[in-house]
Specification:
The chain is of the alpha/beta class and 209 residues long. It has a single domain, classed as Aldolase class I (TIM Barrel, Alpha-Beta Barrel). The chain has 9 helices and 8 strands. α3 links the parallel β3 and β4. The radius of gyration is 16 Å and the shape is globular. The model has no long low-confidence stretch (mean pLDDT 95).
Length: 209
């Protein structure tokens, strides 16, 4: 199983026609965890995309995580799965994928995090710290929630919601260490350059934190 303790930049991305170019570019730029997060496409499309992404990630030494479905994670050879509060349980994921698999769990409130801490997840996500179009209808949790989660957790807590190269340094200085990005890379005209900028901002802030 991959150790996520020192992995900082976690990309969530949907199915893309340019994945063979996009994914190696952002990994070269500093992305060190990749998740296929695709809510709209049928399973066969998600599975085909995931298999290609698994091959790229494995070649480049980066863990690949499937969103929502441990069954698809198993079928594509993913390193693990990420589930939300309304998805199948962490225990079910463990039963299907085994103890060596990565299993991530989303949290959005203190009560959810309380319950998460006693589950056999590899890591947690906290947020979104600000409202974001990638999680329509979900209000921002605020920064204090993410900081509290990290303080209480014995496992990595990846912060979601509006993370970009302009604010990530401040988030590091506030005490956060692991970050999920979506639009900062998926909507960039230069994804590899944007990844380098993001990772550079994280590393620079860590040096002075």
């Amino acid at each position: 199983m991959y150790d996520l303790a020192n992995r900082r930049l976690y990309l969530c991305v949907g199915v893309r026609d340019d994945m063979d170019d996009f994914l190696p570019a952002v990994i070269a730029g500093g992305v060190d965890v990749v998740q296929l997060r695709e809510k709209e496409r049928p399973d066969e499309v998600r599975l085909a995309a995931a298999r290609r992404m698994v091959a790229i990630c494995r070649d480049l030494g980066v863990p690949f995580v499937m969103n929502d479905s441990p069954r698809l994670a198993l079928d594509c050879g993913a390193d693990g799965v990420h589930v939300g509060q309304d998805d199948v349980s962490v225990a079910h994921c463990r039963d299907l994928l085994g103890q060596e698999a990565i299993v991530g769990l989303s949290t959005h409130a203190r009560t959810e995090f309380d319950r998460a801490l006693v589950q056999d997840a590899t890591y947690f996500s906290a947020g979104p710290i600000v409202a974001t179009p990638t999680k329509l209808g979900r209000p921002g949790t605020g920064l204090d929630y993410a900081l509290e989660c990290q303080t209480r957790s014995d496992r990595p807590v990846f912060v979601t919601g509006g993370v970009n190269a302009l604010n990530v340094g401040d988030l590091v200085h506030r005490g956060l260490r692991h970050f999920v990005v979506v639009r900062a890379l998926t909507e960039s005209s230069d994804p590899g350059g944007s990844a380098r900028e993001l990772r550079g901002a994280i590393n620079e802030a860590l040096e002075t934190a």
